[in-house]
Design goal:
8 strands, 11 helices, Arc Repressor Mutant, subunit A, alpha+beta, six-stranded antiparallel beta sheet, two-stranded antiparallel sheet, disordered N terminus, transcription
């Protein structure tokens, strides 16, 4: 008998930290995280604001098992709207810099881009290009964020003002449509139901046929329900592998994998690392 996925496991890390495939030996950056104002919670999951200082000639690669949501990221050098990445999203940090990152809700990517989010899967577009990001004035938002953050990106007042600017830019998209609220609820259910392993269980929970569910998720997050369930399992695996006492076979079984080999293959395909290689970072 397989233990339900996640049974008995209590994480001390938040979900953002679980998704970040951080190397604990990398001390070149710090990240401030915060939630949104209540009135924009249907559009925004959270903010993250990294500040980095990488020695000359060095680089720090940040890899993330991205959540099934679009991202808005404005840094001192670029401004982008990101679609969902099927594998890991990777950013290489060099020199000194900062960014204002916005993790949107599943409903919001379609509203910001104005097109089915599947067109953004595994790619990003320039936030300032109104033909690609018609719902907000990305150029104006980018300019204001850089004006606020550049003097001291670690200043909490500056970070709060940056959050306010982003929320003000997104508020005209409210209220979220019925389909958007449904996809928010679907994704939340997957992410908070560790025993959910099959698409038909998700269909039954929300009274949807599998084809209808497929169409909805491809439109609003860019990928299908099997990917959604697999991604949640991999993020939980990345969390468990940080525990020095965790065994690979036990993790595989508790996450619903048929055997350790299937778990290793899934994890390596998504992250480029074997579970053992990732776990060794924390030993």
């Amino acid at each position: 008998m397989v233990t339900p996925a996640g049974a008995g496991h209590v994480s001390t890390r938040d979900d953002v930290e679980r998704a970040h495939l951080v190397d604990p030996a990398d001390h070149t950056f710090a990240i401030a995280r915060s939630g949104p104002s209540p009135d924009v919670a249907d559009l925004v999951r959270r903010f993250w604001m990294p500040v980095w200082d990488v020695p000359d000639g060095a680089a720090s690669e940040q890899r993330v098992l991205q959540y099934p949501v679009c991202l808005v990221v404005v840094s001192n050098t670029y401004a982008r709207l990101y679609g969902v990445s099927r594998g890991t999203s990777a950013t290489t940090l060099t020199g000194r810099g900062w960014a204002v990152g916005v993790m949107l809700q599943p409903a919001a990517g379609h509203l910001v881009a104005g097109v089915p989010v599947r067109r953004l899967t595994d790619r990003h577009v320039d936030l300032a290009d109104r033909s690609l990001v018609p719902a907000i004035d990305g150029a104006q938002l980018t300019g204001r964020l850089r004006e606020v953050m550049s003097p001291d990106p670690t200043d909490r007042a500056a970070q709060a003002e940056a959050r306010d600017l982003v929320e003000d830019a997104l508020r005209p998209l409210l209220p979220v449509d019925d389909e958007g609220r449904l996809v928010n609820a679907l994704v939340e259910h997957v992410e908070t139901s560790p025993g959910l392993l099959r698409v038909d269980e998700l269909c039954e929970r929300f009274g949807l046929g599998e084809r209808s569910l497929q169409r909805l998720l491809h439109k609003r997050i860019g990928l299908g329900p099997k990917w959604l369930i697999r991604r949640r399992r991999l993020q939980e695996a990345a969390d468990r592998l940080r525990d020095p006492d965790a065994g690979l076979a036990t993790i595989a079984a508790e996450l619903g994998y048929a055997d350790q080999a299937h778990f290793t293959r899934d994890f390596r395909l998504a992250t480029g690392l074997t579970p053992g290689g990732f776990a060794a970072r924390f030993r």
